[in-house]
Amino acid sequence: MSNTRTDFTPKTAIVTGSDSGIGRSTAVALAHMGVDVGVTWHSDEEGAEKTAGLVRDAGARAVVAQLDTTTAPECGDVIDAMAEQLGGVDVFVNNAGINGGPRFFDTDWETWRTTVCADLDGAFVCIQRAARRMVDAGRGGRIIAVTSVHEHQPRVGSAAYDAAKHGLGGLIKTIALELGEYGITANAVAPGEIATPMNDETDVDPMGIHRPGIPLGRPGDAREIADVIAFLASSKSSYVTGASWVVDGGMLQMGPQGGSHLTADDWRRG
Question: Which DSSP symbol is given to 132?
């Protein structure tokens, strides 16, 4: 049985859903660490090529492929193909996913299945393919799943999304137990509101957005999430596994109906 190496130095990574937002910032952060990056896109090929260009500008190699996590289990073939192109996969960042559906009684079966398949089923397949390669390579590895603050606290109107993110968080904790003997760590990063296309905040400076329901008073920047992911992908996180890193400006401390639900600062005065 091998222990997680403290000198782990990643050389290759795959970041799903890296055509924009958190995925793009993560790909660039890893490239600045000297890591070659596999970039995936679902519907924005131009965005993926832009990310690949930024990776190359940082001095790393980039490969690009389309990935649709609703096509599980076939979507796993994309991960295998990218790993072959890269020469392995030391870090796998499961970032691809979709937002969440309506309230419980308004969620039809098709919406439920699409959301859960995109955010959980496809994630399971892709993570499993990457993990098999890490085990076979025998160098250890890092598995990081981007979940959500709603992995920890549900929100009204997000039944399918909340269920999928809770499930993904549970999967990460389980594989942390099972893969530790191979020197592979598994962690989740749970963002709060981040200024990204998923939140209809494309190319917006979060510093200029006021959020009374977030203790830091603003949404996060995608690069602030990427910095945490980069730490978890590095040798500096060698003794961290099975954890879920909440990166939300303190939003969870406000309770499940905090965050963007609050429209005034009255709570600050007790």
Answer: H
